[in-house]
Amino acid sequence: MTKDIINLAVVNFSAVWGDKEQNLKRILEYIDAAALKGAQMVIFPETCLTGYDPEDEDMNREDRMQRLLSETIPGPATECICERTKRYGIYAVFGMPERDMKNPESVYNAAAVCGPEGLVGSCRKIHLPFHEHLWADAGDRPFIFHTPWGPVGLAICYDFYCFPEITRYFRAKGARLLLNCTAISTVETSGAGGFLGNLCLQYLAVNNDVFIASSNLCGKDRTSWFMGGSSILGPSVSAPGFHYHAGSRFLDPGADESGLFSATVDLSDVRHSFLSGVWGDGSGKRDWRPDQYIRWLRDMEEDDR
Known about the structure:
The chain is an alpha/beta fold. The mean pLDDT is 93.
């Protein structure tokens, strides 16, 4: 039987740029701390294993830090973390550059998932904003993994905020919990990224009736200052609405301080969705119409040719 009650933890993580050994050590210690607090799943930010910021644009692609420090999945970092998650019987999700085992020339902005039984898999970021194309290749499919709480959807930053069709896909697949590994800094349009990030998380939680655990980098990277704001939020029992169970909003005072934030949430509070036809015409047919959307998307494909 699918479980409803889960202890979640998210981490404001201050990555040391280019120091994979130090970052891995601290990821492992945060997993220890999360387990001691009773967490069953702990989420870390995008690229927390290496740091996020780019180097000069005229550099050779293969000389870029993230590509030099990239690893296959499975690989040394995931083996260390899987050893810890198996010890505690928990899940840990963390961002890292993944080198494709089958095609070593490809490196992805990825998030690895380790669980009670070992390695679960990796999510590869599909849409690459800003400078990420300088070192990363684009992924090509949404990532869902199966847990005692049902399917869980995982996406990375830009994919999560700006492409709601990914969230809707997760929800249609039965996910009641979505994870966001992110890296939002204060330099992105003078902090507007945090304002928009708050609106996106709140909208997605309410519109899709889903819980979200979002984990952001914090503090100084190479040149950027990351704003933290890791949080756990979901639909309010007084629908429609949202409720923050732990952490803080982007741009809140003190939101950029390092730390771990945890909460116990009841996934059975997920009850309403446009996918189910709760607000439909009473016919029992769902309001969501993928047969129509596919037709529209094919029309767009024809326009692009």
